Amino acid sequence: MAGSGVYTPFSSIYHHSKRGDPEEGKLLVARVPVLDPEWSGQRVATEEEKLESESTSSPVTDSGFCHSESCSDASSIPSSSATFTSFMIGDPFTFVLLNEKEGRVKVCNGSFCCHLQYKRISQGDSEEMYAFGAFAGLHTLDGDLSLQVCALVRCAGSDPSSCGQGVEEAETKMDFVMEGKYWNQH
């Protein structure tokens, strides 16, 4: 059994399949709303500015992701020093815990690096633990696949070794921008 999904506080899209199914893999694409546009660096435009901008281009897309050299350089973030290894779907991910309510972190697995800017919005008395991880290598659980993955995960428990284990629900809402420079020779 394999699967993946894109989950938001408002909706989800997911796909599960098992070996031999007519559709074993599927690319999932979803528009994910920004919970707090001002936090992510997006300025909330007035109606007049919205009309004016329809005829001009901007380096930032609706999602807030940057496609231009004029945007801030995520590579200037130093690697987080308190990394640990935990297995997710059979692969050894390098993780860093997200201990703060908001921040910027970088985690690398070999020469493959992932960057995260985040802001947590806890719901109630939630004590959920989150980690940000990277993996680059050969995934051999369901055949041989060369993968490069950046992952923001809720840990299953309060111990870092539980990061990467399956969880079925979460209460924390989070705004984030995740970046990775993906390359593969295979």
TrEMBL record:
Lineage top rank: taxon: Eukaryota
A single GO molecular function term of this UniProt record: hydrolase activity
Residue stretches making up the Vanin C-terminal domain: 91-182
Coiled-coil intervals, chain numbering: none
Family matches, as Pfam families: Vanin_C
InterPro entries noted in UniProt: Biotinidase/VNN, Vanin_C
Region annotated Disordered, chain positions: 1-21, 39-64
Keywords: Hydrolase
Entries under PANTHER family matching the protein: BIOTINIDASE, BIOTINIDASE-RELATED
Protein name: Vanin C-terminal domain-containing protein
Originating species: Xyrichtys novacula (Pearly razorfish)
